[in-house]
Amino acid sequence: MKHATKKPLRSVGTRPVRPDGIDKVTGRALFSADFNLPDALHGAVLRSPFAHARILSIDTTRALALAGVKAVVTASDMPAIPDDKVMINAQPPDFRDMSANILAREKVLYEGHAIAAVAAKDAETANRALQLIDIEYEVLPHVIDVQQAMEPGAPLLHENLITKGINPAPVQASNIASRHEQVHGDVELGFAQADIILTEEFTTQPVHQGYIEPHACLARVASDGQTEIWCSSQGQFMVRAYCARLLDMPLSQIRVMPLEIGGGFGGKTTVYLEPLAVLLSRKSGLPVKMQMSRADVFRATGPAPGSYISMKIGARKDGTLVAAQGILCYQAGAFAGSPVRLGCMTAFAPYDIANVKLIGYDIVVNRPKSAAYRAPGAPMASFAAESLIDMLAQRLDMDPIDLRIRNAAREGTRTAYGPSFKEIGYLETLEAARAHPHYAAPLGKNQGRGVASGFWFNIGGQSSAALTLNEDGTVMVATGNPDIGGSRASMALMAAEVLQIDVSQVRPQIVDTSSIAYSDLTGGSRVTFAVGMAVIQAASDMVVKLQERAATLWDVSVEHVRWQDGCAVTDVEGREERLSLAALAAQTAKTGGPIAAHVSLNAQGAGPGFGTHICDVEVDPDTGRVTVLRYTAVQDVGKAVHPSYVEGQLQGGAAQGIGWALNEAYMYDENGAQLNPGFLDYRVPVASDLPMIDTVLVEVPNPRHPFGVRGVGEVPIIPPLGAVANAVSRASGVRHVDLPMSPPAVLKAIQRAARRRR
Amino acid sequence: MQYQAPTRLDDVAALLASAGGHGRVMAGGTDLLARFAGGMPRPAVLVDIKRVAELMVIEQDSDGGFTVGAGVCGAAINENAILRQAWPGVTEAMDLIGSVQIQGRASLGGNLCNASPAADSVPALIAAGASCRILGSRGERTLAVADVIHSPGKTCLGTDEFIVSFYLPPRPARSADAYLRLIPRSEMDIAVAGAAVNLTLDDEGVVVSASVALGAVSPVPLLVPRAADVMLGTRLDNDVMVQLKSVVSASCRPINDKRGTIDYRNHVAGVLAVRAALIAGQRATAKERA
User: Matching SUPFAM superfamilies, A to Z (chain B) (predicted)?
Assistant: First the structure.
C-alpha cells in the first residue's frame, strides 16, 4: 500500500476524545439490557441444581398452564445438528456441543446448566413458571478437578468420548478429549547438554472474564419467520451465524443489531440466550427479552480453563536455554475444546530454544464450558515457563532480564511451534524494561520484584468497511465489529489520516448485519489491524475517486491531480488550484453522483506481539497478604493508533492478570455447586487493590500494515501471572507454584518453608 | 410490602407492634435491600427509621460519654472529629464497611441488628463497652452491645423493639481503641477475621484496663476477657504480645467456609489482636503527649 510508515502522521498517534465517550459517561449509550420493545415478554431460564445428572423426564404442563405464561422451550425444540453441520470448515466451535450447552439434552453436566426456558408476561410469572417445570433427575457422581478427571475410575461426562490425537485410538472412553503434541528438535539431546535442569509442577484455577455487563438480548420473530435480535456480543455476524446454524435457519432471515458491549474479553464470542429468545418469540409471537443475573453469568458462562502443568527446563551455566519439556492439562469444562494447543504454542515462544517438547491434554469436567479469555490458553502456560526462567535466574544469580535477553527470540528465530519470526520487538521490550526507573528502584523489607514476558500471535481475518462522503464533506465510516476497546476512535483516526482531514470530520458507526458485508468476530486482537486495513483501503479508494471528480471539474487528466491536506490539488499555469472535500461533496451531482467506498478483505500479515512486565509486591509474613506496590507494563504495540486506548489495554490486561494471580477462584461445595457466584467472594481486584499501572509503548512497526499496527489487546494479560508470582516468591523467599496466591495459600507456603529450614 | 417512614419514636414502636412480627426495621438498608434483591421474602411492613430525629444525632454528654443514633450513617460518624478522637477504633471499624456510597447509608444499628458474625463495627463497640437503648411497645431498656446478638442472623430484640441509640462511656485519660480486620482485598470485602482492642494506660504507660473483642471467628462477635487479662499491668512488651497472640488464637471458635479456614482464622485473629493492641497503646500514649 501507498502509505508508508515513514511518512509523518497527522492523526494516527493522537489522543482525541472517543466518539462514543459522551454517550458512555452520560449513560445514554444503549447496552444490551437497555433495549426494550413494547409488549416484550420476559424470558427466564431453568438451570440445573446438580453438577452431573441424567434427565429422566421433563414435564412442562403445569408451567404452561400458569396464567401469563406464553411459551416454554426445552432441548426438544432445538433442531438436532446433523453430522455435516457440526462444524463450519472443520473449525471449532462444535455446534452440537453448543446446542447441548444452551439447553441440556439427556444429561446436565454442571450446576447452572440450562434445561428449559420460559416466556411470560413479567419476571414474577416467568420465575414462578420455572418452579412448575417438573424434572426427574438421576444424580450422578461428578468431577471438577482436572487431575481427578483424568483418573481411570473418574465419573465420565460423555460416555462415548474417545481421546483424539492418540494412535492407535483408545478403546475406552475417558474425560480426556484430546492429546496434542508439539515437538521441536530433540529434547533428550537438549537436556544432555544442560548443566542445570529445573523441574516444577504448577496449578492455576479457572477464572472468569468478569465483564461488567451480564449477557442479555431481545429477539422478535415475525409471522413470516423474519428474525431480529438486539444484543451485545463480540460479533453481530457471529450471533447471526451461530443462531442460524443452531436453529437451522437461512442467514438472510436473521438481522442482528449490535448494542454497546460492556466488556467481553473473549467471553462474548459465543451465544447462550439468543437462540432461546428466538425460539420463545417464535412460539409466542411476541418479542422476548432475556437477561442473565450475575450469578447466572458465573454459573453458566465461560471461564478461562484451570490447569495443571508439569514443566522442565535445561540450561548451560552461562544461562543459555537448551531444552524445555512439559505436560499441560487444561480444564475444558463440560464440553471439549480448551485452548491447550495455544498454551503449548505460546509457552516458550519468547525464547530461542533448540529443543522443546510439549504435550497438551484437553480435559472435560463438571464445570461450565470454558470460553475464550484474552490470549486463550497462554497465561497459564506462560506462568509455568516464566516461573522456571525466574528460578533459573535465581540459581545462576543472574539478572532475570539479562537472562531473558540472552535467550530472546529475534527476527529469524524458528519458533517451537513451526514458523520463524519476521520483524518482532521482544528484545526492545526487555531493553526498555531494564532501562525503566522502576527496575532500579530500591526495595524494602518483605518486598520483592518479579519480571515476566509474554507472546501472542495476533490475527487478521475477514473484514469489511464502508465509507460514505456526506453532502457537506464530512465522512461516515461504517464497520461490522462491536467497539470493544476504542475501535470507533481508531477507525476514525485511520480514515482521517488517509483522507488528510481532521478526525472531527469523521463519524464512525457500528452497523447491523444487514447494513454491511461480513466481518469475522472481534477477537485475536484483530480489529484495529484487520478492520483498520479495510478502512484504510476504503479511504484510499475514496481519495482516488475524489481525485477523479476533481479532474472532471477542472477538465484535466487525473494524473495531474494530487491529494493534499484534505483537498484535491492541481497546477494551472503555475498556479495551485484546490478543491476541498466539502467543495467536491457539494458538486457530486455534476461529477457522477454520491461518493462511497466499500472494501471487504481477508487481512494477512498480522504482527506478533510481545510484552515484558515488572511487578513489585510486599508480602505480610504474618498473614500472607500480598500488596502490589508498583507495576510497569512494557509492550511492543507496532504503532499505537490512539495511545490512550492502547495504554488502557495494557493496564486492563495487567489488572485482570493480577486478579488471576492473587485472589480470583471459583469455590465449590462437595456436590459440585458454586459457592461464590458473585463479585463479593469472586475477588476481582478493586481499584484500591492496584497501584497506578505504568505503561511503556514500544513501537517496532509491523511492515505489513500501512501504519505499522500490531494487535495489542491480548499480550498484556499473559505476563502478570508470572510477574506477580516471581515477585511474591522473591519477597517471601519461597517459590509459589499454585495460583491464586491468596493470603492463606501464601501463609501456608511461608510456614512450610520455615518448618523445612528448622 | 407496605413502606412506612415515621418521624416519631413512638410511631416506630406502634407500627412494629401492629405488624405482629411481620414488620422489619430498615436503617441504611444496605443489607436488607441486597437480601430482597437476592430473593428473600419481603415483610408486610417496612419501617424506615431514618426520619426519626433521635436516631440521627451524635451528642456528647457533659461527662464525655457519647450518644450515637442508631441510624447515623458511617460517613457522618467519621466526619465527627471529637468522636473520632475519643473512639478511633469504633469509628475506623465503621469506616471499613463498604464503599463511599454504602458509607452514606450504613449505620451502627443496622450493622448490629444484621447480626453477622463478621460485622466490623460490632467487635469495636463491644470492646468499647458500648450499650444500646432499646425501645418497644411496652417500654424501654438498656442492653450491653455484647448481649444483643443471639446467634448468626438473630438478635434478642422483640419483634416490636428497635435500637434508638448507642452509648459510649466517658474516657479516662490515656485511653484509646483500635480495630483491624483481614480481607484479601483492600476494601469492599467481608472480614476473614477482625480484632478490636480498647486500652487505658496509667501515667507510667502500664495497662490499667483492657478489653479485646473478635469478629468472624465464632458464631457471634466474641469478647475475650482472658486476652484482656494478659495485658493488664503490662507495658505491652514482646513477651506479652506473644502470649496475647496465643490466648486469642486459642479462644477462637471459627468455621471453615468460603472466606477462610479454621486454622487461618485462628492464626490471623491472634496476629490482628497483637497489632490492634500495639496501635491502641500508641494512640493512648500519643494522647498523653497531646
Answer: CO dehydrogenase flavoprotein C-terminal domain-like, FAD-binding/transporter-associated domain-like
Nearest to B186 among A675, A689, A742 (CB): A689
Contact A662 B188 (CB under 8 A): no
Whole-angstrom Cα distance, residue A244 to residue A225? 12
A662 contacts B184? CB cut-off 8 A = yes
Ranges of each domain in chain A = 21-29+460-603, 377-458+607-757
A170: helix, strand or coil: coil
Q: What are the chain A neighbours of B260 within 8 Å (beta carbons)?
A: 744
Considering only the top CATH level, what class is A21-29+460-603? alpha beta
- Name residue A13's amino acid: G
* A interface with B, Cβ–Cβ below 8 Å: 622-623, 625, 627, 662-663, 667, 675-676, 680-681, 683, 685-686, 688-689, 742-744, 747
Quote the pLDDT of residue A758. 78
B258:A681 CB<8 A: yes
Q: Given B185, B260, B271, which is nearest A744 (Cβ)?
A: B260
CA of B147 to nearest chain A CA: how many angstroms apart? Answer: 29
What ipTM was reported for this prediction?
0.94
* Model confidence pLDDT, tens digit, residues A730-754: 999 999 999 999 999 999 999 999 9
Let me know: does B194 contact B181? Beta carbons within 8 Å: yes
A680: chain B residues, CB-CB within 8 Å: 188-190
For A476-523, the pLDDT digits (tens) are 999 999 999 899 999 999 999 999 999 999 999 999 999 999 999 999
CA distance B12 to B157: 14
Taking a C-beta distance cutoff of 8 angstroms, is the pair B179, B276 a contact?
A: yes
- On the question of a common fold for A21-29+460-603 and A377-458+607-757, the answer reads yes
Peptide bond into A93 cis (omega under 30): yes
Mean pLDDT, residues A283-300 taken together = 97
CA atoms within 13 A on the CB side of A557: 2
Q: Give me the mean pLDDT over the B152-177 stretch.
A: 96
Summarised one tens digit per residue, pLDDT across range A569-596 is: 999 888 999 999 999 999 999 999 999 9
Q: Give the chain B residue nearest A689 (alpha carbons).
A: B186
Cell of A226: 423474519
Nearest to B182 among A625, A662, A686 (CB): A625
What's the CA gap between A724 and A746, in Å, rounded?
Answer: 12
Q: Which residues of B touch A662 (CB under 8 A)?
A: 184
- Rounded Cα distance between A374 and A304, Å, is 9
Quick check: B190 and A623 CB within 8 A? no
Rg of chain A (C-alpha set): 27
Q: What is the CATH number of domain B2-168?
A: 3.30.465.10
CB contact under 8 A, B264 and A663: no
CB contact under 8 A, B264 and A747: yes
> Which residue ranges make up each domain of chain B?
2-168, 175-289
CATH architecture for the domain at A377-458+607-757 = 2-Layer Sandwich (3.30)
Q: What is the rounded CA–CA span in Å between residue A151 and residue A147?
A: 7
Of residues A329, A343, A335, A328, the one with CA closest to residue A373: A343
Q: Which CATH number fits domain B175-289: 3.30.499.10, 3.40.1390.30, 3.30.390.50, 1.10.1660.10?
A: 3.30.390.50
Among chain B residues, the shortest Cα distance to A665 is held by B258
SS3 at position A329: strand
Residue B290's pLDDT band, with cuts at 50, 70 and 90, is low
Using the structure block, give the residue that is written with the C-alpha cell 428466538.
A278
Sort out which chain A residues have CB atoms less than 8 A from B34's CB and list them.
Answer: none
pLDDT in tens, A240-267: 999 999 999 999 999 999 999 999 999 9
d(CA B8, CA A689): 43
Cell of A518: 461480513
